[in-house]
């Protein structure tokens, strides 16, 4: 089986991406980050997903993006709540973490070279790249071009680097449908930007709203555990 590195955040998108990589016959090394995000529940979820799927290894890297701040996920900035899709797509959201995907992909490139993997999978998708600059197709293509110039395995003329973004043209409903078809246990994942220490999702941040709509559009039950409160988001 060829080796691949999959960026695994513990959310629905990365879990589906992991399932896609495995369905294509890759032996997967999963890579997650404790980067100073608001909660570590997503890391717990990532470890749970990796364990249940049976990846070759699960590497967790500790970095601190809080030293830069500038994001609702790494700074004392309120997470936006109860927003419509139009509001989400109106501008780059406060939950954008400066250069995060570039940093994550750089680490994945290093792991891929050491593990002799020519393939890297990342779960960016269409509902993100409308707002996040590092989730666009042209960004992924540019990073792949750079990666092919940056590693010993690429410049030896025998190996290359392929950055796969299999969800990039999919809606959240498409992603939930694909993951369901591949047997993803979405109850093991969490997408919330502001989950509790117990792993309960707020239900009202952008990520929760999109996730809930994804299940609703597929007429599937949402297995997410939400906090007990009055839900005002639709």
What is the structure about, briefly put?
The chain contains 9 helices and 5 strands; from the N terminus they run βαβαβααβαααβαα.
Give your account of this protein's structure.
It is globular, with a radius of gyration of 17 Å. It has a 5-stranded parallel β-sheet, with helices on both faces. Helix content is 38%, strand content 11%. It is α/β, with parallel strands linked by helices and 234 residues long. The chain has one domain: Rossmann fold (3-Layer(aba) Sandwich), CATH 3.40.50.620.
How much of the polypeptide forms β-strand, as a percent range? 5-15%
The number of E-state strands comes to 5
Give me the strand/helix succession.
EHEHEHHEHHHEHH
- Please estimate the helix content: 25-40%
Secondary structure class reads alpha/beta
Number of domains: 1
Strand order of the largest sheet: 3-2-1-4-5
Identify the CATH architecture: 3-Layer(aba) Sandwich
CATH H-level superfamily title = HUPs
What can be said about the biggest beta sheet? 5 strands, parallel
Q: CATH fold name, please?
A: Rossmann fold
* Number of helical regions: 9
Rounded to an integer in angstroms, the radius of gyration calculated over CA atoms is 17 Å
Oligomer: single chain
Regarding CATH, which class?
Answer: Alpha Beta
Rounded average pLDDT: 93
- How far apart the termini lie comes to 44 Å
**Unreliable residue stretches:** 230-234
Shape, principal axes of CA atoms: globular
